[in-house]
Amino acid sequence: MTLNSENVMSESALTPSTTPEVVMYCTAMCPFCLMADRLLASKGVATLNKIRVDMDPERRGEMIERSGRTTVPQIFVGEIHVGGYDELSSLERAGKLDALLIDGSV
Q1: Fold for domain 20-103?
Q2: What confidence tens digit (pLDDT) does each residue in 22-79 have?
Q3: What is the pTM for the complete model shown?
């Protein structure tokens, strides 16, 4: 995170080149996937790499291997496995989601 002389986060700290990649394994009809997508969009995530496991069964295997879970969504910020929508919204309620999305720290 970049702070200016007044300890205010600068705009440059939020550019896609400095933020961790956000990946979400999802399906088209999953309401929790849609809610996660909306929450991430509301936090300013401009580029969300959505991997549709309903369209590509091999990617479902990848998701299970990476997360150890079979349910969607499975969300990763950088190399950090957040979990599903419940865990994502818990981070938001705890005030920790912004830091994770900015610099990959919890």
Answers
A1: Glutaredoxin (3.40.30)
A2: 999 999 999 999 999 999 999 999 999 999 999 999 999 999 999 999 999 999 999 9
A3: 0.83
Q: Is 87 exposed, middle or buried (0-12, 13-18, 19+ CB in 10 A)?
A: middle
Q: Which long-range contacts (CB under 8 A, 24 or more apart) does 79-83 make?
A: 79/104, 80/20, 80/104, 80/106
Domain spans, the chain:
20-103
Q: Tell me, what amino acid is at 82?
A: V
Q: Are strands 22-26 and 48-52 parallel, antiparallel or unpaired?
A: parallel
Q: 67: which 2 tokens?
A: 């997360």
